[in-house]
Amino acid sequence: MPTAEVNGIEVAYERTGEGPRLLFLGGSGSSLRESALLRAPFAEHFDVLAHDQRGQGATSVPPGPYSMADYAADALALLDHVGWDTCRLVGISFGGMVAQEVAVTAPDRIERMALLCTSPGGAGGASYPLHELADLDAEARAATYPTLLDTRFTPGWLADHEGDRGLLEVMAARTGRERSAEARRGEAEQLEARRHHDVWDRLPDVTCPTLVASGRHDGIAPPANGEAIAGRIPGAELRTYEGGHAFFVQDRAAFPDVVAFLAGDGARGG
């Protein structure tokens, strides 16, 4: 796995696929290994650049605190490292927060953008405070998490929906996995940066064609937050899918729609 020295840290990254250049930004606590399946549909259509964000995976865990501006600066420095002056951008959950920060910081570098299951912060609404979930004991976390992932995921619902039980088991396993003390510190720093995310007042600075996609039953980034983002970014398109925070897995129309949007015309050259 290649690494790049950016902003005083070593950032692990991967490039997969061929086609238009696409920067992929994953969610809280997500490493390149864990996001591989999510990136695969994009790599069928794009030259996908993804990295372990600071504090995650094989990337350095520098001293905190981290800010959302730090995450955006790392992403932009990685673009410089691989020689991309512009690219398309997809951000999922926490990655959508970083994507918003990137797009308002350097609007001239983003050709098209898709924001999935994310929030703007501030007056536009924040996502569920995952730092509070992380502080719960295992039993309380297990009781709370299902309806955050999808507000329908009550015990009765899950008893009748085998596929949703499987999805919950996969997602919950990520939150309960064993981690080193250093990895836990990196995750805590990321959650603290997430807690302070607020790009609301700057969203009108986004200039690229933007798709905002939400899950109808998302308990982490409610659809109202996606509506707020779309209403704030000039010309943004809003789509709501059947599912929760993982709607892109639950609704078969989601991935093809996002890929088609990102592959569309209207991108600036460079």
From TrEMBL:
<dbReference type="InterPro" id="IPR029058">
    <property type="entry name" value="AB_hydrolase_fold"/>
</dbReference>
<protein>
    <submittedName>
        <fullName>Alpha/beta fold hydrolase</fullName>
    </submittedName>
</protein>
<dbReference type="InterPro" id="IPR050471">
    <property type="entry name" value="AB_hydrolase"/>
</dbReference>
<dbReference type="Pfam" id="PF00561">
    <property type="entry name" value="Abhydrolase_1"/>
</dbReference>
<keyword id="KW-0378">Hydrolase</keyword>
<dbReference type="GO" id="GO:0046503">
    <property type="term" value="P:glycerolipid catabolic process"/>
</dbReference>
<dbReference type="InterPro" id="IPR000073">
    <property type="entry name" value="AB_hydrolase_1"/>
</dbReference>
<dbReference type="GO" id="GO:0004806">
    <property type="term" value="F:triacylglycerol lipase activity"/>
</dbReference>
<feature type="domain" description="AB hydrolase-1">
    <location>
        <begin position="26"/>
        <end position="249"/>
    </location>
</feature>
